[in-house]
């Protein structure tokens, strides 16, 4: 019972990754390695995992509101060599009704596209592919069933990201594609349902905003009849200006040396301006934009304007995107904008590479949130150590044996007390609220929600009803991780600085057995009372916990 063991290789990697410069030696911490962790593909194949594999080929898929994009790249000496690009104009946003429900036709169109994409990436290992959904999938009320089908079509998990996270990834992709120096830049991306604005220095984004307006949504709202009269154009630009007014003052005060545009709408406008001799190749000026707007109004419709450089598939979404761009130039005082090739999908690749190389934006986010709310870092580390000890013993039997889930458990341990900055009373609920509603760069919306549920479930009632609101793929893993967090909290509630208590956790189907040193419970009656509470709470999720010496 007193034999001391060190970290498994997986736990060492995960712990050092989360806490740079922090290490428990064999004499500092006791861990059980009775259950060896496997490095194979997980049994639960519906959940993507970050395995310790050779990621020679990486892929990123962007499920945009207008187009779906996929990029496949091979790693060569730390750089990407693109081996394939696929793009299909799915126009998912066009299938969204005024009540925010996706039509069956739009879903079928999207699934057919993803089945074609899936042929190229199904055989890539877990953790080497990132798939994200943006504005339309963020707001669609019936996206859950669609996402289940989409995961099957692709063979990889899908993350729904927030607008701010979308902006961060766009900036990352643009910065790498243009090789940004330390000059300050404004980056803008007009999507089908939202427009992102980012100001950054070099590769670091400083200000990020995502506004609810895009080429598809504005074209549907203001140009549904195909006409582009002066009145319609004015109404669309005024609507865009009202949204931009929210960021106008802070962005103009921050300033920038260069404005950069990304993605289809801005690239299309640049092509049209070049073909008509209004601007140089890859550049949009305020005067060129004014000429294009006037030409469209005079023609009365995009079709009659007969723009050179405009593809047929963009005919019905150009007017809305053009109005968003024109309003942005006017309200933000942009005189000149260059066009970048990189965008969200390239940003996904670089962010994925960072995770593989243990340079994860989520680690920095968690540490920043801890410090913003003055978390007791030493205590949080002790909880994480205990949770890791318990995790290592059950990970294989509970099908949790992959790094992403271990990191999620450790992040929950790190953030479990952020709510103390609000009030000690019900602090677990305050913590959950802050985790759920804070801007957490690097985290998907669903991942952030799962973290919030775990933090809420650290004490008192087991959060069964909150877990049931997660996607089917995340419910069981979140439930099991929450159990481990709760047990780690029980043994650290006294905030003791000792971290040498040996606790053995055994599983037998629905039965859990905690084995403690002889006489330990008699010396810790409060912990014994807390464990009795856990016995009752775990019955709610059909787990039978027993505690023995």
Automatic annotation (TrEMBL):
Residues 71-354 form the Ppx/GppA phosphatase N-terminal domain. Keywords: Cell membrane, Hydrolase, Membrane. GO terms for cellular component: plasma membrane. Its cofactor is Mg(2+). Its EC number is 3.6.1.11. Homodimer. Belongs to the GppA/Ppx family. This is Exopolyphosphatase.
């Amino acid at each position: 019972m007193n034999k001391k063991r060190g970290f498994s290789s997986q736990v060492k990697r995960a712990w050092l990754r989360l806490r740079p410069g922090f290490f428990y030696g064999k004499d500092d911490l006791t861990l059980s390695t009775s259950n060896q962790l496997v490095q194979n593909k997980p049994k639960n194949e519906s959940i993507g995992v970050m395995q310790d594999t050779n990621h020679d080929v990486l892929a990123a898929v962007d499920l945009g509101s207008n187009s779906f994009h996929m990029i496949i790249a091979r790693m060569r000496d730390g750089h990407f060599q693109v081996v394939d690009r696929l793009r299909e104009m799915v126009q998912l946003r066009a299938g969204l009704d005024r009540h925010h429900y996706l039509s069956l036709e739009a879903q079928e169109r999207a699934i057919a596209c993803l089945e074609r994409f899936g042929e190229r990436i199904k055989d890539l290992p877990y953790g080497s592919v990132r798939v994200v959904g943006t504005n339309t999938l963020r707001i669609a009320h019936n996206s859950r069933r669609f996402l289940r089908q989409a995961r099957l079509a692709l063979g990889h998990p899908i993350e729904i990201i927030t607008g701010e996270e979308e902006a961060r990834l766009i900036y990352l992709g643009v910065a790498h594609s243009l090789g940004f120096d330390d000059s300050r830049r404004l980056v803008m991306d007009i999507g089908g349902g939202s427009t992102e604005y980012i100001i950054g220095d070099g590769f670091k984004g400083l200000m990020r905003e995502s506004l609810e307006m895009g080429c598809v949504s504005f074209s549907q709202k203001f140009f549904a009849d195909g006409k582009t009269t002066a009145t319609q154009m004015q109404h669309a630009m005024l609507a865009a200006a009202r949204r931009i007014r929210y960021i106008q003052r802070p962005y103009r005060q921050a300033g920038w040396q260069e404005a950069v545009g990304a993605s289809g709408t801005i690239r299309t406008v640049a092509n049209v301006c070049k073909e008509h001799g209004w601007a140089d190749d890859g550049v949009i000026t305020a005067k060129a934009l004014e000429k294009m707007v006037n030409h469209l109004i005079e023609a009365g419709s995009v079709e009659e304007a007969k723009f050179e450089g405009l593809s047929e598939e963009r005919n019905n979404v150009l007017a809305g995107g053009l109005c968003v761009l024109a309003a942005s130039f006017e309200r933000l005082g942009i005189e000149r904008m260059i066009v970048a090739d990189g965008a969200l999908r390239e940003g996904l690749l670089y962010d994925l590479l960072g995770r593989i190389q243990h340079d994860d934006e989520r680690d920095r986010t968690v540490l920043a949130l801890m410090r913003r709310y003055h978390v007791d870092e030493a205590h949080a580390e002790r909880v994480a150590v205990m949770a890791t000890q318990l995790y290592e013993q059950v990970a294989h039997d509970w099908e949790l044996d992959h790094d992403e889930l271990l990191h999620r458990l450790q992040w929950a341990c790190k953030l479990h007390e952020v709510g103390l900055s609000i009030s000690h009373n019900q602090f677990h609920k305050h913590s959950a609220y802050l985790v759920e509603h804070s801007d957490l760069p690097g985290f998907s919306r669903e991942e952030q929600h799962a973290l919030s549920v775990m933090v809420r479930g650290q004490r008192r009632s087991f959060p069964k009803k909150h877990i049931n609101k997660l996607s089917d793929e995340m419910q069981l893993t979140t439930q099991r991780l929450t159990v481990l967090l709760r047990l780690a909290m029980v043994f650290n509630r006294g905030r003791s600085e000792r971290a040498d208590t040996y606790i053995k956790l055994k599983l037998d189907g629905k039965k859990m057995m905690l084995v403690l040193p002889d006489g330990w419970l008699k010396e810790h009656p409060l912990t014994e009372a807390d464990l009795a509470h856990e016995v009752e709470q775990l019955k709610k999720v059909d787990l039978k916990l027993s505690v023995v010496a």
